[in-house]
Amino acid sequence: xxxxxLYLGLLIAxxxxxxxxxxxxxxxxxxxPPTLRLSFYQCDLSQMGPTGEQIETxxxxxxxxxxxxxxxxxxxxxxxxxxSEWNVGIYTVADNIEAVLAAxxxxxxxxxERHPDADAGLNQVCPSHRDGFYVFGPRTGDDEDEGEDxxxxxx
Length: 155
What we know:
With 155 residues, the chain is α+β, with helices and mostly antiparallel strands. The chain has 5 helices and 4 strands, in the order H-E-H-E-E-H-H-E-H. It has a 4-stranded antiparallel β-sheet with strand order 2-3-1-4.
């Protein structure tokens, strides 16, 4: 019985810091802002017909699956309204860069499996492209709790 306090002391000494560290890690993960990948393309918009159809009928359904499975938060395309020669873009939002890359790889696997004869999509009609990864900073609606407090205290 004399060893019981010793064992409890060791358990507390070694167990509590690990539990605290795990809680801190969880808190950091919860607080980490999402990652945004932007891909910009220089495209001949007059050649986008078949590519646009492929995007809508083959690619977007796979990305919708990846969103539904929680691999990414969202994915989509945007097109030049008024800007530079980088006239077509793709955005992907996920928890971190690793998640974006894993989802992109999974997309490629599924695309190859389901549509092995599909062309190279945007890469076929867009001779140049560039990618960038960004981490969200301050933004509107950033504090979800603040909005809830306003609703509760209303008229």
